[in-house]
């Protein structure tokens, strides 16, 4: 039975992804046009980002400019790595590792940006010290509405930063280990046996991801009302969209490929074809996000008024209201 089944399967469906030169031989006119268009999109994304880096470096003060450069670079970096993975199918493991490691740092940088937009750690603690923070937010505890509010303190802020930073460090370490194991044939996404390394590393990375997103969500949910003038909500939405597209979408496509839902198309196996579709979709999506982020981030930043300044303005407004009523 097994021999007859193997006889009906194209041998190319059981092989490794083709080399870049071999892949070009299988492309027809439509395929070449598609590759050219996607390469153009990723190149434009990278060029726009580099120009934006020069602008931010000149117009925004340190250390906020480095944070903005990191965050706004998520989409073009992922698009560039996806373009490399599209042209070189055998390098998908390495390009995905580079994209995921970069975005792991972006998660931490988003938290830092929220704090910096409020004046930095010292001004943040001066404004919110002792203020109860709601911690029943996603992705960990969005349903746990009974959780008590925790007062903000220096120790609390330190724990939030550590919670986001651990993902940037451990994700990079585990990604490097995964690539080393992959080069030696010990890491295979299709190997779902209990003895496989992928079945242990990937769920652990998932736990790290959730625990790193929670501190960022806590700070955002408790401070976004003060940062609406800085377009913090659409910025956070773009960050969340990149997270969903680069992590969740890729995982779903990989599962469909492993299940055989995505059919084999020689010279690409089912898994390689799923990776190829993921790379191509990622380039188009990140190109659009790059354009949106350019509109959101390419502008000078003004310092947010302090709490004392807000109170003074409110006092003047109340005095004017009382005088007019008299």
Could you characterize what this model shows?
The chain is an all-alpha fold. It has one domain: Rhopdopsin 7-helix transmembrane proteins. It is 71% helix and 1% strand. The chain is built from twelve helices and two strands; from the N terminus they run H-H-H-H-H-H-H-E-E-H-H-H-H-H. The protein has helices at residues 2-7, 20-25, 29-59, 64-72, 74-87, 92-117, 121-128, 154-183, 198-223, 232-259, 270-297, 307-325, and strands spanning 132-133, 150-151. Strands 1-2 form a two-stranded antiparallel ribbon. Helix 3 (29-59) packs parallel to helix 11. It is globular.
Question: Key features?
Answer:
globular; 326 residues; Rhopdopsin 7-helix transmembrane proteins; disordered C terminus; mainly alpha; 12 helices; two-stranded antiparallel sheet; disordered N terminus
Q: How much of the residues is beta strand, in percent?
A: under 5%
Question: What is the CATH fold-level name?
Answer: Rhopdopsin 7-helix transmembrane proteins
Separation, N- and C-terminal Cα atoms: 96 Å
Query: What is the radius of gyration?
Result: 24 Å
Choose one word for the global shape: globular
State the share of residues found in helices, binned by percent: over 70%
* Total tally of structural domains: 1
Strand order of the largest sheet: 1-2
What is the class in the CATH system?
A: Mainly Alpha
Number of helices: 12
Judged by helices, strands and strand pairing, the structural class is mainly alpha
Number of strand segments: 2
User: Strand-and-helix sequence, N→C?
Assistant: HHHHHHHEEHHHHH
Low-confidence stretches: 1-7, 317-326
Largest sheet: 2 strands, antiparallel
